[in-house]
Amino acid sequence: MGTVHFLLGGNSGNRSKYLESAISMIEEAIGSVKEKSSVYQTEPWGFNAATAFLNQVIRVDTALSPRETLHRTKEIEAKLGRLKRSDAYESRVIDIDILMFDDLRVEDHDLQIPHPRMHLRKFTLVPLAEIAGSVLHPVLKLDMNALKRACQDKLKVEMFNKPLI
Questions:
Q1: Of 6, 44, 48, 95, which is most buried with the most CB atoms under 10 A?
Q2: Taking a C-beta distance cutoff of 8 angstroms, is the pair 21, 80 a contact?
Q3: What are the helix (H) ranges across the chain?
Q4: Using CA of residue 85, residue 87, residue 91, residue 94, what is the dihedral sign?
Q5: 32 part of a folded domain
Q6: Whether the Cβ atoms of residue 69 and residue 4 lie closer than 8 Å to each other
Q7: How many domains does the chain fold into?
């Protein structure tokens, strides 16, 4: 059994509902959701968009391999209506990123674990540190709380007060 930390996010449509649906589908297709961070409203990273993102980190226990986990997250994104038009950052209904999978290191063209930019993004580190503050980054060997404190990202990340439906 492996432990995966996922970042969920989106800024199109009913943002709360898409997060809730993604979590439910992950539980059905990947494994048991053991912990969820609060939901955060965040400014878009890497592009301009009219609507802020909602982001949440979840911890999941799975019997799947990292490759099969990636395959199933892409299926879930497609079922929820994510259309990936290019490799550029863009608005989306849902994005599911594998942040960490135990302490594994994977370097493939379509799968990199740990996520190669997680330590640069406050919208990732704030919810991740909330549920995994003492977990060490497998490459940087610093815990998530330390990475959050060191993060230079100045984009706004704030607790989203609206309860999930």
A1: 6
A2: yes
A3: 15-29, 66-79, 122-132, 144-150
A4: positive
A5: yes
A6: yes
A7: 1
Q: Give domain status of residue 14, yes or no.
A: yes
pLDDT of residue 155: 92
pLDDT tens readout for residues 106-145: 999 999 999 999 999 999 999 999 999 999 999 999 999 9
| Residue 100 lies inside a defined structural domain of this protein | yes
CATH number at residue 73: 3.30.70.560
Token readout for 79 is: 């079922």
Residue 157 or 46, more confident = 157
Q: Which residue range forms the structural domain that includes residue 68?
A: 2-159
Specify the pTM: 0.92
**164 in a domain, yes or no?**
no
* Peptide bond connecting 114 to the previous residue in cis, omega within 30 degrees of 0: yes
